[in-house]
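To close the chapter, one final illustration. This time we ask the reader to focus less on the individual chains and more on the assembly as a whole: which components sit near each other, and how the overall shape emerges from the parts.
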Amino acid sequence: MQFFTPTPTLVGLRRSLKAVGKFARELFSRPPTAAGTLTVLFFLFLAVFGPQIAPYPDPNFQKNPSQEAPTLNLREFRLGDYPFGTDRLGRDVFSRVILGTRSIFRAAGLGTLIAVIVGTFVGLFIGYQGAWVDEIVGRIIDAILAIPALLLALVIIGIIRNLNFEPNSWQSEVADNAVLIVIAIVYAPIVARVVRSATLEIKSRQFVEAAQIRGESPLYIIFREIFPSVIPALVVEGALRFSYAIFLVASLGFLGFGARPPSPDWGLMVSENRGGLYALTPWALEYPAGAIALLVIGVNLMSDGIKRTVQKSG
Amino acid sequence: MDKEILLHVENLNVSYRVNGGWLRAVRDFHAQIRRGDICGIVGESGSGKSTVATAIIGYLSDNGRIEKGSSIRFSGEELTTKGRLAMQSLWGTQIKLVPQNPAAALNPSIKVGEQLAEIARYHLGMNRHDARKAAVEMFGKVQLADPESVVFRYPHELSGGMQQRVVIAMALITRPRLLILDEPTTGLDVTTEAVILDLIRDLIDDMQAAALYITHNLGVVAQVCDQVIVMYAGEIMADGSVKKVFIEPIHPYTIGLLNSIPKLGQSKRQGALQSIEGSPPSLKNPPKGCVFAQRCPAAVEKCYTEKPELEHTHEGRLVRCHRWQEIHSGVLDIIPETQADVEQVERLERESLLKVENMTKHFGVRRSLMEVIQGKKPAPIRAVDGVNFGVQKGRTLGLVGESGSGKTTLSRLIIGLTERTDGEIELMKIKIRSNVRERSADVLAQMQMIFQNPQNSLNPYLTVGQQIRRPLMKLAKMKHDEAAQEVYRLLRAVNLQDDYASRFPGELSGGEKQRVAIARAFASNPELIICDEPVSALDVSVQAAVLNLLARLQEDRDTAYIFISHDLAVVGYLADYIAVMYLGQLFEVGYGHDLFEPPYHPYTEALISAIPVPDPSHVSQRIRLQGDIPSPRSLPTGCRFHTRCPRKIGAICETEDPPWRDDGEGHFIRCHIPLEDLQAMQQQLVMAEASS
Amino acid sequence: MGRFMARRLAFFLVTLWMTSVMIFLLVRVLPGDVARVILGRDASETQVEAKREELGLNDPLFVQYFTWITDFVRGDWGESFAFRGQDIRELVTQRLVNSARLGLISMLIAIPVSITLGVIAGLTEGKLPDNLISVFSLSVVSLPEFVTGLFLINTVALKWADNPIAEKIGWFPSSSAVRADASFRDALPSLWLPAIAATLVLLAYIARLTRAGVIEEKKSEYVRTAVLKGLPYPVVIFKHILRNALLPTVTVIAISTGWLISGLVVIEFVFGYPGLGSLLITAIERRDLPMIQAVVMVTVSVILIANFVADLLYAALNPRITLN
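The assembled structure is written out below.
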């Protein structure tokens, strides 16, 4: 089976590079979008090189284990050993915030990516096939979406966590990555729905009918004729989902259903340092909370910009 | 000629801000409109005609601006400097716009009566009661049936023709002095268009208002307007009285336009249409010389370097051309005699290629809960109902009908994109399956399709070459290298250069896209191509070139066409044999020219009579169809046309299906009236028209 | 209209049924051994077997589903494990009322404010007010509920803690841990802060969608018609633009109930408020499966009912649907 006609690949490659370049230029031409995109790239950089950058690559490093009292930080950035101060256990907040980026990007980014891939396949398929397949899968998607994302995530994680698994079995792998998997489960139906409606619209265009009357297979039509036209909607939706996913990961961490202590997870750090109603170490809570807000603002600005760019060129 | 000048536009320049730069969409526009006159602005898409309209009314979009030095005077008052509040009262009472798309121009959630009455309240100082009464009265004036109940309806409950009447009523209720009509009949069927045009003409005469009528349709201008301005690429090319401009055109563009539309009854055998090659210049870098030079058959060197001025001729017309005097005096003849390279014998019988028998499509209607409980089955929508016809090898069958006639459904049934309810299709004596997915590659290769909208029929993410290569490999079973060569041959056959193969559809004009679609349809060298309104989305000048191309390719490759169009003149030009469709059934079938002479079916007669002819001396027979096409959900009994038939003879039309009547020479009419009687009645009208 | 209602009702019931199957699968099948999950890892095999028998876990799955759903519809939701054998239905309805108080207050604040903001932003698209509102809603959208919640506690509640007047009125206590069966009057003071946090959840969401609706309608041709009728600007806005632009907002508000409920889970947790959300978290933490099932079912029903009502309301307000 040959789905892709062997076109002069160099021409194709150059054209797609040009398209990507043009897209990037459009994206950076608006200051808010550029700021958002740079913020996201900055955090991505931290996620990749966090252990190399953080002053204390071990998130649980306590300089002086006997000294459990926190270093006071008057809510201002100070150069020195602990720029953001330390938490109640004497751990460096600065390092932990940096190291936390990786877990956020892993769960939210990878989870969204899986949701986008699965949702795209499902959406393309049911949208193109239509009829009863669409009817049934559509109803299932509706049923899943009737449960609020956070509730669904809480229930699934709550249950997966309580299962007894052999250590190092694939089930325990699943349990360890529960948040990532939950993001994929919760958002795949939404992506599928978006892709489905885009597919329905494109299916009725005449170039698809032209492909049908020359006897193309459904797979060729779905991937070669329809899929490229779905990409703009998909990019917009993917960016939006990513920002919600960050939110969800942080909330799960805060509620105690995300990463387990002592991981440097932002949501978890906020909840750990809450210490009842009066936070003893407010800075240890404010920096990770600020990091979450900053990243989400960045992703939102970026996805807003992507949406504008896509709508403009589409 | 001494009527008061109501609108005086001078040096109008309008620009739009696009991607940071200003593009000048209208340059040096001039116009004078007198009371009681209708002035047409005619031009193709991108000519700037709609921009002129919005500039005059003072409602340019946010990225548009009127340049300094422009002047628009409305009964002596300068409009360009007026503020929004001052304009508001003018908009309310004096200057009115009739927009193009009435469905979008009406507020979907307010009853149409209120949408009209609010004008009367705000601008005529009426109270609620009087305003409502005035609305009913106005609806009566625009000939809406049952105006008392129409006022309580929402826009979506009205047909397109009725919505347009509502919009016209909204424009006329304050008895404005200036009306601007922006393609008011473009979305309507010809029969409805004809009625609306009559109405507009009468109402404007009655009110002695001045009107600016914007349209791309030369026929409409000839029928409705007194003056005409021909625009091209943002500039006036010619202006003058309709009689002068149409009968003695002196600008090459006007001449080209007039000759590019097929006349009613004109056939491909009488010669190729005169097309205007190329496409309009881009506004980004307008040419230094004449904007039309690149497409002008009379262009000389001067035309490329020096911009012609808008000159006054002694007859009081304006023209922008370096060579108008030569054209005027007859020294320069720019209409080339074209030889028709087509088979000259019309009644040539050839072997049968396609036979369609009892073709039927009933769309099921979803049952409501009550109907399920009661066990009722709602009547299906009978889109196509028992149609029989054949197509011969290398010939063209034209299929005409208004929207809702089922012609597009019929074409989709034949190609297999819609599954038939009943009936048989035989292609080269072999029965073929209903669904295109079940047909073999051999059958697919023999039957291809050209779609209506070139915007939609090419995949925006694949290059032209990829899209033509695919059917070559898939259906013509060519190897890759062979196919690559064939792509270039096909492109050349549709008059496109080789480098188009690597372009994306987004980089092509509408006409070029349609050429690519044609090349793609011809790739598998099919016996039959179904053309579903292939030129209706194109500008007239481009349309002619595509029609010529289709005629030439048919001759070269001996391919048969089923050519579908709502435009009788276009069908008449290309078709050897024509079928007229109404509400899912055929009502008349005959050789091309038979359709344009009595006897014809009363429906065909009405269609012909409704077509606006681009000849101001033409007097229409004035046969007008009343009402709208009935819903295919509840079809009229007996003859389906009886509800609108101007020649209805009595109860028999309502109860009995009419018989097919045959003149023995291949002309069939489905009517209760015998052919001789039809001929006698219709001949009379034609005579009357000729003598007037 | 009758036909439309029947269709929507059928759709509502089918979705509700499918969701119940989903919840059943999630809570009863996904864990594998339900009895073991409930009793924990240390329970003996005989205890687990007894529990299985008690819960009917040895029956075939569809029998289990059928028993559960019929009991649920009849109102017999069983006893809670986590809350010492309390009747689940009583507990859930009590908490539902508490959550509804919180949700309704925040909706009452959020809807008028957000629609006003959205309309202003839409009408002044690209100008200063729009930009200010956009920046505001973007920052609100970007703050997780627990961050805003903690922020409110740390600033408002703790600042006012020493203020004698505030203390006297009893407004803005830093903890909303009222008694679960408190009356509305008693609970009201502790409702304000969580309600403000919940309001922020809705505010930006509704405002952004309203803005988009207004901008779309503003560019429509019928608005041009209205302007060219020479109608005064306020008439164009209120009669022609808003009537159509706010129609979808009805649906948006319904859809945002799901959104709100998610937010409430976190907010109730932060403030220690005894609502449905904090009940769910406790139930999950203590592996109280029947309770989880009940809470999720109730939540989903609320959301689906809200959507159903919104559909009907939309149809009633939109002439284009009424007569179909």
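Chain B has a mean pLDDT of 88. Chain B has 25 helices and 25 strands. With these observations in hand, you are ready for the problems at the end of the chapter.
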